[in-house]
Amino acid sequence: MPDPVPPGPARPPRVRLLVSVRDAGEAARAAAAGADLVDAKDPGRGALGALPPAAVRAIVAAARGAQTSAVAGEPRDAAEAEALLAALADSGAGYLKVAVPPDLDLAGLRRPAGPPVIAVLFAEDAPGAARVPALAAAGFAGAMIDTRSKDGRRLTDHLGPAHLAAFTAACRAAGLLSGLAGSLALDDIPVLAPLAPGYLGFRGGLCAGRDRRAGLDPDRIAEAARRLAAAARHPAAA
Ligand SMILES: O=C[C@H](O)COP(=O)(O)O
Question: One of this protein's Pfam families, by short name (predicted)?
Answer without folding.
Answer: 4HFCP_synth
